[in-house]
Every structure is written in structure tokens, then in C-alpha cells.
Design brief:
By secondary structure, the protein is mainly alpha-helical. The chain has helices at 8-14, 23-26, 33-44, 56-63, 68-85, 101-107, 122-129, 136-147, 162-168, 193-196, 202-220, 232-258, 260-268, 278-288, 301-324, 330-333, 340-355, 358-381, 402-415, 420-437, 457-472, 476-506, 529-555, and strands at 169-170, 176-177. Helix 11 (202-220) packs antiparallel against helix 12 (232-258), helix 12 packs across helix 13 (260-268) and helix 19 runs parallel beside helix 21.
Length: 565
Amino acid sequence: MDKRNTSPCFLDTHLVDIHEVLPEEEEEEGITKEENGEAEKLFNKPFKVREMKSTTSQRSKINRQVSLETGFSVLRKESKKGKDENGGVNLPRNGRSFGGFDSFNRFGMEGRKGDFRIFKTKSSSLSKQNSLLPSRKERSEMESQKADGAGLDESVDTSVPAGRYFAALRGPELDQVKDDEDILLPKDEQWPFLLRFPIGCFGICLGLSSQAVLWHALATSSATEFLHIPLFINLALWLLAVAVLFCVSLTYMLKIVFYFEAVKREYFHPVRVNFFFAPWVVCMFLVLGAPPTLFPNKLQPAIWCTFMLPYFLLELKIYGQWLSGGKRRLCKVANPSSHLSVVGNFVGAILAAKVGWKEPAKFLWAVGFAHYFVVFVTLYQRLPTSEALPRELHPVYSMFIAAPSAASMAWQNIYGEFDGVSRTCYFIAFFLYVSLVVRIKFFTGFRFSVAWWAYTFPMTTFSVATIRYAEEVPSILTKGLAVTLSFMSSTTVSVLFVSTLLHAFVWHTLFPNDLAIAITKRRLGKEKKPFKKAYDIKRWTKQALTKNNLAAKVSNGGKEDSFYP
């Protein structure tokens, strides 16, 4: 048998060097059928293993070569890359964003960047999607791809665990995605306005409506009558608050109609779920701060039922989750915004007392105080089982003073006097307020957010409670304190109002992409657990060997082991 010499020429008949490619081959888009046929013939030729013995230099050249099939696949990528560099259009997309891949996973269509239909209401787009539904065979193939671990999120409409929000997001409002996390929508493209409109916008209504209550108290209270404040300010603020509430409510209702899946994501959010209580609290604030010129008659109980019933039903749902001990138990989802779900009980008790229903007012006060105490202890204690809250001090911590301030006023309206219970609640709020004011430097250095509006009404509520306290204990100190706190509250709201207008109409940065609603149900990146386990195995092996060596030394009387006699 003729022995065929192993040479580069012989090797080139079976393998091709991707670095030695002719220029005209780089310009081709694909491979012709003739080239494929010749490649298969050459690749399927029998050759002997013993003939592959060669020198070290030839082996190194073999290592630098690849098969025909791999080589041509690389050539196709290089040709496409060359086209892109020579003027081709290449749309950039953030590497940590999955665009429309979820829609491909569900409907069998090609995923494309910016596919926002995954967050649309199902009923509104059902007729358009019926024609695009995959067949039974395609559906089974997609299910097999999911089982193989394609790396995509399962479904948008499924509930995201509360712990997932704490793991994927950061910031006091949990609205910023961590750098190593993936999202379902592109970051480098502006989303539709309704998707960028958060539930936290109702915080603007909270701030303005509470200001209407404050200026109503300043104009009608005996403790501040020396200021001679006209009711016109209360009327202007009340009309402004009603207008803002109407615009925000209408916009969010449109979001519910067209992007209901995004609304569900906000409901599952451990911080934003508390803002679903805000619209009803705003309505009750507007009733309490209504100008006497517009509503001279006594309030009707039907008004209290209209605004308190939805709040109470949502309260049963949230408090049931806290009590049941599931994935959304209080020690796991507690945050300063949880006070929004408590303060409404005291505001409802004040309104119930105004309409003459004392017993429902006492009931709401008892429920609110019990849950405020639990929330306060949970946040103050920082249980080891709860998720870590942001370390930086932020205006979100002003929520601590809202509930005791409202509780002191509710007790006064129920029993008709600012007695010991009212003063106890007021002094608790006073201490918390002072503890935040002395740390004013920690309130700087944070980017503006619409959610900041929700943290202005606790200051306003405490100012109103101070006015009530000054009525019971009239003195220069109490009256001066009431005026000072009212001025600080109004100044804060004015600054926020101007900042909001600038961000909305001048800088156009009021509503950035709401990345918090686009996180995946589980982390899609590489897990570090296998590396940790490998490291643990190595460490355990090292420790075991060390222990064995020590035991051998002890058994040999401290002498080292030797392999030689």
C-alpha cells in the first residue's frame, strides 16, 4: 500500500484555513449548492488515522484550522459584518434587554425590538392575534424549547414574586434596574406614554389635596386667626387639586384599558401596590378641605360610603396577604410606603365623624392603629427575614409621621377633644418629625421622581395636627410652631410643583421608561451558584487533606511521613 505523505496540501483537501480566504469569497452572501456538494465529497473521503502523524509545527497548524462547515459559517458572519461596516444599517439594542422575544415565545412570531404588545390588554388585541396563533405542532415545539431552557421569561401576565422585585431593582422606590439584570423591553428606545405613566402620579394629587386641607385649617382655625388668611387660597388649591386628580385619573384609566398587563405588574410591585390606595385618600382629602363657599351644607354619609368602600375592599386584600404568611407577608414586603395603606383608615375615620357616623369612625380608627403599630415595629426593627431596605435616608421615611398625625386628629373628631390619646399620637409624630429634620443633609443627592409628591402630605398632615394642638394649648410657642411647620410644608410643595413643571415641559424628563414593570420573572443571566459550589468543594478538599495530614503526624509521634525506608 502506498503511504501518502502528510503535507499541508493533503490537509487542505479536508480542512480549510479561515485566514486564507480569497477576497471574492468574503463578498458572497452565502454558499452555492455546487460548493456544498464538493465540500461534502471532500469531507466524507476516508483517510487513515496513522497518516495524520506529523511534526509539532504541522500539529499547531491543524489546531489553527477548522472544518469546512464551521469555516463557511464563520465566513457568512464575517461577510455580514463587513456589510454592516461598509454602510449597512445596524440598529443598536441594549444587551441586557430582550425586546419582543417574549411575544415570540407565546405567539410563534418573530421577536422584534420594541414589541410593546406583551403589556397590552389581552381583549383589545385578541382579534389581531387570532390569525397569528401557532398551530398545535408549533405550540408543542415552543413548549419543548421552553423545557430545554431557552432562557426567556415564561409569561408577562403571571405574578412576579415580591422577592424578585427586591432582587432585581434598587432605589428607595424600587424603580431602578440593577446593572446585571435583564428586562423585557429595550432600554434605548422611548416607550409609549401610557407605559411610562406610573401609579405614583397620584402622589401629586395627595400633595395638592392635603395643601387644600391645610389652608382651610389656617383660614378657619382660632389659633391662626391673627394671620387673616382668606379662603380664596383654599379655593384655588382645591380647584387645582381637582383638576390634577381628573387628569391623572383619566390617564391611568386609559392605561388600564390599553395596557392592563403593565397595571398588573404595578399591583405586584411591593412599593407601588400601596399607591392604589392613594386615589381614595385624595378624594377624602378633597371632601375634608372643600371650600365652604361651594359646599355650605352638611356632608352626606353617601359620600363617605362612595370613597371608603373601595379603600376597605382593597385593604382586606392587602391585609389578608400580610396575615396569611405567604410570599407577600408583611415582613417580606414591608417598606415605608406601606403607611399609605394605613393612613386611609384615619382619614376615613375623620370623614365618618364629620358625617355623624361615630361607630364606623371608631372601627376604622381601631383597625388603622393596630396595623400602624405592626408596620411601625416591622420597619423599625428590621427583621432578619425581611428584604433589606435601602440604607440611604430618603424623603420616603417621612411616611412614618403621616399615620400618627392623622390618628391624633381622628381621635379628636370622634370624641370631641384633644385628650391624652390624641396628644400621645401627636407626640409620637412630633418625635419622628424632629428625628428626620435633624438629618436634613441625607435628603440631598437623589434624582427627582414623581413619587416624591407622596412624601409631602405627611408633612402637611403633621402641620394640621399642630394647628389642632395649638387650639387646645394656646401659646406663642405652639402658634409659632404651627405657622413654621405650615410654611415649611407649603414651601416644599411649591418647590416640587415648580420642579415637576420644569421636568414635564422644559426638560421632558418627567416620565422616563418605567423599567420596574419590565423585569423578568426570574433572573436570566448566568448563575454564580455552580462556581460557588466548585469553590466550596475545593475548599472542603483542602481542609480534609489538612486534617488527614495532621492526624498522620499525630499518629506518627509528630514525625513527617516518608516514602523511603
